[in-house]
Amino acid sequence: MEKKLNRAWALIIGTVLIALAILIGQSSAQADSSVASIKERGVLKVALSPDYPPFEFQSKAGGQSEDAGIDIQVAQKIAKDLGVKLQIMNMSFASVLVAVEIGKADLAIGGINPTPARRQNVAFSDYYYNGGQVFLLTKEGAKQLKKASQLSGKTIGAQSSSLQYKLAKDKYTDSKVVGMDKSSDLVLALKGKKIDAMGIEKPVAEAYIENDHSLTMIPADYNLSADETGAAIAAAKGNDELINEVNKSINEIKSQNLMKTYLKNAAHKLKDTTANTSMLHYWQYFLNGLLYTLYISVWAIIGGMILGAILSLMKMSAWKVLNWPAVSFIEVVRGTPIMVQILLVYFGLGLLINIPALTAGIIAVTLNSAAYVAEIIRGGINAVNKGQFEAAQSLGLSKKDQYRFVIFPQAIKNIWPALGNEFISIIKESSIVSIIGVTDLVYELNIVKADTYRGVAPIVVVMVIYFIVTFGLGRLLGHFERKMKYGN
């Protein structure tokens, strides 16, 4: 009973410390995004999700990969007017406003509608674009669904946390509304008949239809004003000075009719990008993603083993000053999703220390692995026969040498299969780092899907790559397991 209470207290203390770290860091986040600070460092940091053509996407025109689209040009205009360079921070759409709210990015852009709920947490500029709302359908589905009012009772898809998702939930109360992080996944669901229609902005729908002739669209029937559907740029709450500078740039875009040019440029780059949509054409994307995945996995395996061994010994210690932190850490990590941990390290710890996305991803995956490795090692040590401890003591070995020469070698044999499974899991679970913009295999998968308008082919390629890597690692681990088993 006492042990359970100690564990519960350790878990509570660990959770409170994490919450305090976030609150302390959040109080200092705003100052970094002031206009003076931006000009001093010479860089404007803009968060976006590059999987929403023609607003933002990754162009492969000329063999070089670069961020392109309407929003990229708007951001470039703002940076130029401020007299600084533009730094694009790619991440999932659900994370862009969080990045601005805590000061990780100066601005967030991406066809974002300033809803009342969003205005409570961030400040918004004037509207810079309004494309209108439509529903994307397959041509086959359009034979039965000729107007939006017929969607009642149907399954509607929309990007999670988007205006389209909220509009569909509010209006079509008797319909099932499905949210997904990526528009390309929704289109795949639409073509696979998992959803009947997809709520989306008109320019995005037109881009999909241009590149996939099996799709069509119908107007939405929301009857909304421009203020309710327009796209604006987000900054930290209270950062009125930066918002004023952004509004100056937006006013120039409107007065000089630059949006027409931006649309034309985006369409041109999108056409070049989709000229060749074969998976072979994107081999560099997949190779780059594989290298990052392996890089993250190797460091996480090494770090997880070292930290896991330390945590296991701390947890087995009779000293509470060592035992409690280890128990707290292990319970918190094992009791929370790895995606939440990655967001916490990047956005939470990033409040105190400026951590790049790749470093944050490695740290989070390493910490997650260490908690599981610690329990694997502890179980392996406890599985060693007590007689082995007594025999080592009778030989006059020190505590350190007992573990080094007698206990650990036997424990390794016991835990090797479980460790092997953990190593393979790290490779697969590291895919979640794509949510903060780390260019691993899953990140590149989403980029290729958005660029090529092909849903299944990129998924198959990435699945094959993961299988080859994990299958090869499994065989290698099995080889060493057999050598340890037979002693040769």
UniProtKB/TrEMBL annotation:
CDD domains, sorted: TM_PBP2
Gene3D superfamilies tied to this protein: MetI-like, Periplasmic binding protein-like II
Record membrane topology: Multi-pass membrane protein
SMART domains cross-referenced by the UniProt entry: PBPb
Chain ranges of the ABC transmembrane type-1 domain: 290-474
Transmembrane segments: 289-313, 343-365, 455-477
Keywords associated with the record: Amino-acid transport, Cell membrane, Membrane, Transmembrane, Transmembrane helix, Transport
Localization terms from the record: Cell membrane
InterPro entries: AA_ABC_transptr_permease_3TM, ArtM/GltK/GlnP/TcyL/YhdX-like, MetI-like, MetI-like_sf, Solute-binding_3/MltF_N
Highest taxon, organism lineage: Bacteria
NCBIfam families in alphabetical order: HEQRo_perm_3TM
Entry's family note: Belongs to the binding-protein-dependent transport system permease family. HisMQ subfamily.
Name by which UniProt lists this protein: Periplasmic component/domain (HisJ)
Top-level taxonomy: Bacteria, Bacillati, Bacillota, Bacilli, Lactobacillales
